[in-house]
Design brief:
Layout lengths: L3 H8 L10 E5 L14 E5 L3 H9 L3 E3 L8 E5 L4 H14 L4 E7 L4 H9 L6 E5 L2 E7 L13 E4 L2 E3 L11 H9 L6 E6 L5 H7 L4 E8 L2 H10 L5 E5 L11 E6 L4 E2 L2 E2 L1 H14 E12 L5 H7 E9 L3 E9 L6 H5 L1
Parallel strand pairs: 1-2, 1-4, 2-3, 4-5, 10-11, 10-13, 11-12, 13-16
Antiparallel strand pairs: 5-7, 6-7, 8-9, 14-15, 16-18, 17-18
Helix pairs in contact: 5-6
Bound molecules: S-adenosylmethionine.
Length: about 325
């Protein structure tokens, strides 16, 4: 079922779930096969739009926030310590006197999480597997001073929240992209993977930009972006940028594309963003993106655009500019627009 530690615990009967238990899974990875619990009452909390859509397509009851009450909560530990603590607190709240199961990779901090939980309550069981740990305990009020983090100001008028990309303040790559934005950029465009709104606020400051389609998969980041971008020229979309369709063809796309799937470096996601930009742009439209120097985007750009050049760069980042999409899936209708 692709939660290997939980699977192992259930298969070996190290952990037994009460019969007819109402279950909640807080932010499992998108590959989790929720149908393994078919017949049970299962709610899934999911912040990431592609994952949300996948769980919904499997027929699961899915929401960005699960309120309960349930009997058993499985928490997939996120990397952010504040968010991890918030999810554990939420778990005890939605399963009063129920069972809380915490599941995480070593690289996401499962050992310190176990230590912090152990300091407050008795652990009923634990096991190690697949470079991580699973532990479980009875919900109580032991974590009532831990809370789910909320959007809050961090620096220079920006609101972010733990768990989102570059939560401590503007990303260095995005700052380099902003410095390289051509002041002549005009018309309507999109910020794909807009995060909490850093690039879009700068795009809106350009004199000829009229409208920004803001596309972001992380619901928490989108919530922050709405607070950071109080401007009627922005349309917000909680969506997967690789499949999202614009209401009309665009003059430009700007992006600092994601380069990780969960914790694994994955250039194919950025390449899918490039393909999406080519699909969304007008025939003379332009794409501007920033990437870490080592990321292999040039071949995809050359396959999708007639003109490609490096606008600026240094040892760490490159700002790439591509013009005139030649995406094979452009229809004759969209060419005429
Ligand atoms: C490298 S960050 C850049 C964020 C923001 N533009 C900035 O400059 O700070 C990439 C963003 O893409 C978002 N993202 C990842 N996969 C996505 C997808 N399939 N569709 C839309 N956004 C996605 C991430 O949540 C993250 O906010």
């Amino acid at each position: 079922m692709t939660l290997p530690r939980l699977d192992h615990a259930l298969q070996t009967a190290a952990l037994e779930l009460p019969p007819d238990a109402r279950l909640a899974f807080l932010e499992p990875n998108a590959e989790f096969d929720v149908t393994a619990f078919e017949g049970a009452s299962v709610q899934v909390q999911q912040n990431d739009k592609p994952g949300y859509d996948r769980f919904a397509a499997l027929g699961a009851t899915v929401a960005t926030h699960v309120d309960g009450p349930v009997d058993v909560v499985h928490v997939t530990l996120p990397r952010s310590r504040e968010l991890a603590r918030g999810l554990i607190a939420q778990a005890q709240e939605i399963a009063p006197e129920g069972l809380v199961i915490v599941d995480g990779a070593k690289t996401d901090g499962i050992d310190p999480a176990l230590k912090a939980v152990k300091a407050r309550t008795e652990i009923d069981g634990q096991l190690s597997k697949a470079h991580g740990k699973l532990f479980w305990f009875r919900a109580s009020d032991a974590f009532s001073d831990w809370t789910l983090p909320a959007p809050a100001p961090v620096t220079e008028g920006w609101i972010t929240q733990p768990g989102v990309f570059s939560a401590d303040g503007p990303d260095a790559g995005s700052q380099a992209l902003v410095a390289a934005l051509p002041p002549s950029l005009k018309g309507q465009g999109a910020d794909l993977g807009g995060g909490w709104g850093f690039l879009t606020r700068h795009l809106l400051a350009l004199p000829k930009v009229t409208h920004v389609e803001f596309v972001e998969a992380d619901h928490r980041a989108l919530t922050c972006a709405k607070l950071n971008l109080d401007d009627d020229r922005v349309a917000f979309h909680w969506a997967d940028a690789t499949t999202w369709g614009a209401p009309a063809s665009l003059d430009w796309v700007v992006t600092n594309p994601p380069f990780h799937t969960s914790r694994t470096p994955d250039a194919s996601l950025g390449q899918a963003f490039i393909a999406s930009a080519a699909r969304l742009l007008k025939p003379k439209g332009q794409l501007i993106l920033v990437a870490n120097r080592h990321l292999p985007y040039e071949t995809t750009l050359a396959a999708r655009f007639v003109h490609v050049k490096e606008l600026e760069g240094d040892a760490r980042f490159k700002i790439l500019h591509a013009e005139q999409p030649r995406s094979p899936d452009r229809s004759g209708a969209s060419r005429r627009r």
